Records
---
Amino acid sequence: MIKIIVLDDKNFCVKEVANKEIPCSSIIVIYPIEFVSDSVLEENIPKMVSVVREYIKESESYLMFKNMIGNARWDSEKLKYGDMAYKHQKKADELAEKMNKGISPYFWYVGKVSEDIVFNEISRKVDYAVCLEKIER
């Protein structure tokens, strides 16, 4: 079964992030249309884009080492993988801070996409979506 996510182009703005290094890995940026031409967001998007690929890499490395802990046989392996997972999580947290600097109470949520995305009646297969979310307090 193919799942499709349809984004309403009246409410959201979608930008594709060009990837020169890894053409098969695609990322889209999604944010409410009310933020189009917002100077704070327009200033933040290039900062976020500059680190999002590294953030994704660190997050995936963290998950890989975390899974390896569960499959490890020896305590020494578990400690080693735990240390590696911690280092990648710490680096991902630092990158998230850089991505989100100056946009509080909003933040960028990075998620792996398993469905096709339809926007402006065009279907796209993307690997990751970076969505602007509001922190609920």
---
Amino acid sequence: MMAEDITNIALSVHASEVAESMKESGYFDDSLTAAKFGMAYAIKYYFDEINCESLEKVYDSKGSNYNIGSVDPDNYISALLTALYPEVTTPYRYARVLMCYGLNKIGDIIEEGRLFPISEHM
């Protein structure tokens, strides 16, 4: 049986905290924009080492919750992840994992005091 895709992206508590601190830095309009940045960061730097299938069970879903209509109003994320993972029928499950993974990695950078200037990380 094929897994159904999610209609809401619920980040982990830790990923939500990182996204919130990124928003508070003034570089991001909101936490969702920071979460999307986290996803892009994960894809750029960790694409080959991320196993979204196994990581899906690792991250709690007790953090910020975003409706897919807000996350991907133009279906760009769905199209991108379908292109990156042609066999995947649940791109938003992957988006959630990539957001959590990327935000966790960015959280490590924040703790080390090396996030800014943020342009050095993209």
---
Amino acid sequence: MAHPSAADEIGPLIGEYGYDWERARRNAVGWLVVGVLGTAVGLPLTIGYIADAGSSGFSPAPGFLLGTGLAALAVGGTLLTLSVTRRREVFRLHQGGLVHHRANTARVLAWQDIAQVDYQENDRGPARLMGTDVHCVVRLRAGGRIRISGYHYRAHHLGSTVWRAVTKGEPPAAP
């Protein structure tokens, strides 16, 4: 006879929501390409513009191009780092709680172990590209927090379900 696991104690499994690291990686590479191109074009233009600072005429274009390139590099680097560190992250939604698997660890969280859930949706194009179309922060009673982003499969469903279970006391129905 198998011994029950901690996940068995929080009820039947409703669904699994992994981190879409391939989508995050593709978006990171896109941002990095834009960043490299913007910086490669904007930096010489900005240097040339600064060298001619005494002449008449002002154009914000070189600085804007350089700033856009640097910002895209920062976004791309962040997304690339997250895509690697969260590659095997999985949320398993159960009727009585949530199991968070990351790297080689798993945390079993019953709904009463969660102090607060901050959940926001922003379904605009740029937000989807950066994975910020879903921003869900799960604050734990024991301290710490877990983030659910738009890069998790079916993040809208997962985030809203966790928010309803903790905030409204409406746990998900068993399949």
